[in-house]
Design goal:
This protein is α+β, with helices and mostly antiparallel strands and 226 residues long. Helices cover 20% and strands 33% of the residues. The protein has a 6-stranded mixed sheet, with no helix packed on it. Strands 5-6-7-8-10-9 form a 6-stranded mixed sheet. The chain starts with a strand and ends with a strand.
Length: 226
């Protein structure tokens, strides 16, 4: 099972659209989560079921720069979507349940801090708190995967603060999740997976777009061996 996580920087430069799609498709992933995206422009083909957060209006969150079709999170899955789970913020996070080769899995795609931390500290704190309540409500004892731009590094450069690094580590421990993407230095985009879902299978985590030519974020790929 292969999972991709990539923040594509709102497709600010449209000439990057084709190489971004080519790069994503080259991984032939089973599950793809894109953040800062545009569901009207991204077409990954008929192999994928897809679900998106609610499209943004131009003046969403009292700014004036969103373009037609922009949305914050999209999930593309080769596995059928069993159910869509209501989240606390329809514009910023979404949750679906899928039936994989390894069993049922709830995938929670999100951005924590839509303007980063330095851009709007109060919004970051609000997003973290609201989504934490979502986790407590939705996850229970189920197999879960949090994927997206969490704006928190777990190694290397401390961002946004040691306090929120500790808070995220506490959540990881509480829900007994693998934190392999946290070992990627200076990385703020994560794939956090239930350890019980992974079981005894080996996993591999790699980064792409390391030169940041296609986006200002690293792309992350996690492979779970059969």
């Amino acid at each position: 099972m292969k999972i991709i996580n990539f923040n594509i920087e709102r497709l600010l430069i449209l000439s990057k659209l084709k190489p971004i799609i080519q790069l994503i498709k080259s991984y032939d992933a089973d599950l793809i989560v894109l953040t800062e995206t545009n569901s009207t422009l991204i077409d990954l083909g008929e192999d994928y079921f897809e679900y998106h957060t609610t499209p943004l209006t131009r003046n969403q969150d009292k700014v004036n720069f969103y373009r037609e079709g922009e949305n914050r999170v999209s999930i593309y899955s080769k596995y059928p979507i069993k159910s869509i789970i209501q989240t606390i913020d329809e514009f910023t996070c979404l949750a679906i349940e899928i039936e994989t080769d390894f069993g049922e899995l709830i995938v929670y795609g999100t951005i924590i801090g839509i303007f980063g931390y330095s851009g709007d500290k109060d919004r970051f704190v609000k997003d973290f708190s609201k989504q934490q309540s979502d986790f407590n409500k939705i996850f229970g004892n189920k197999n879960v995967c949090i994927v997206g731009d969490l704006n928190i590094s777990l190694s290397g450069w401390i961002y946004p603060s040691r306090k929120y690094r500790d808070k995220l580590n506490t959540l990881i421990e509480e829900f007994d999740m693998d934190r392999s993407t946290g070992n990627l230095k200076d990385n703020i985009d994560h794939i956090l997976m239930s350890k019980k879902f992974i079981g005894n299978r080996g996993i591999k985590v790699e980064m792409f777009n390391v030169d940041k030519k296609l986006s200002d974020h690293f792309g992350i790929c996690m492979t779970i061996n059969k």
